[in-house]
Design the sequence.
């Protein structure tokens, strides 16, 4: 039985020769055109793209797969019960079934402490000062950080001094500015102390002759003699002949703004690594 005459739903063309269930000809699209869809941003990478579907959320198949993976991980994490981290004892929700620690760093610290076996090391003598101490590490050779720093300074002292001298020669203006700033601070300290009457040059020469042109602290005169304040000006000392003593360059610089008792307690000031052994002060002249 011949097929009845049928027309296309879109263009009204004769489709009698096609299958009896056909509703459109082969040239007409199967779906109604959607029209122009506005551009949007991808939810994963943020790229602006032209979607082909109205329910499109990602710019590519890779971004869409990553979106589904994140949704699946979020659902799995919500369903996962809370765990307690053995390292920091905090509760967290795992994103993996075999996860034990809240963070990889926490796991590394906990495993390091767990695998560490404390060992009681015997006492040894410091290589710098000779004091017996209980080391915390098998490679420890100094009793404190001070001794270690002093040994390092003594090892590289010449290079550091040369670098400082080179910097001073390369930056004369900045060096003069720093010296002027220190001199202004010194004058301010003298003005704030009303008992500062000054040091007469004749009295200073007499004091230097009394100490035989030697340092009052170590008995040497290396680097020239400096006018050292026994009680520093920055700590309320007077700029007077009764508060000054002749001191060598090393003693004056190492003493700084300290009292004599504080300076003697400070092992760094009397370090054998920076200056020669102190000489016995000469007796005062009659």
Sequence:
């Amino acid at each position: 039985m011949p097929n009845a005459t049928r027309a296309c739903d879109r263009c009204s063309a004769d489709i009698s020769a096609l299958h009896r269930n056909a509703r459109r000809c082969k040239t007409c699209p199967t779906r109604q055109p959607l029209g122009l869809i506005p551009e949007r941003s991808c939810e994963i990478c943020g790229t602006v793209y032209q979607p082909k579907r109205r329910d499109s959320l990602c710019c590519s198949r890779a971004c869409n797969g990553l979106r589904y993976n994140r949704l699946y991980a979020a659902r799995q994490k919500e369903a996962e019960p809370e765990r307690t981290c053995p390292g920091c004892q905090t509760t967290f929700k795992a994103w993996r079934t075999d996860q034990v620690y809240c963070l990889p760093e926490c796991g590394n610290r906990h495993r390091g402490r767990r695998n560490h076996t404390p060992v009681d090391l015997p006492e040894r003598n410091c290589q710098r000062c000779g004091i017996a101490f209980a080391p915390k590490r098998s490679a420890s050779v100094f009793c404190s950080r001070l001794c270690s720093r002093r040994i390092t300074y003594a090892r590289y002292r010449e290079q550091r001094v040369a670098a400082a001298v080179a910097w001073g020669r390369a930056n004369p203006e900045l060096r003069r500015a720093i010296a002027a700033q220190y001199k202004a601070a010194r004058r301010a300290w003298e003005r704030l102390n009303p008992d500062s009457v000054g040091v007469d040059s004749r009295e200073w020469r007499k004091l230097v002759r009394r100490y035989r042109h030697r340092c009052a602290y170590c008995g040497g005169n290396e680097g020239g003699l400096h006018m050292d304040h026994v009680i520093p000006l920055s700590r309320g000392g007077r700029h007077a002949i009764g508060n000054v003593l002749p001191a060598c360059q090393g003693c004056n610089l190492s003493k700084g703004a300290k009292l004599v008792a504080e300076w003697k307690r400070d092992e760094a000031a009397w370090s054998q690594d920076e200056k020669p052994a102190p000489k016995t002060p000469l007796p005062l002249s009659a």
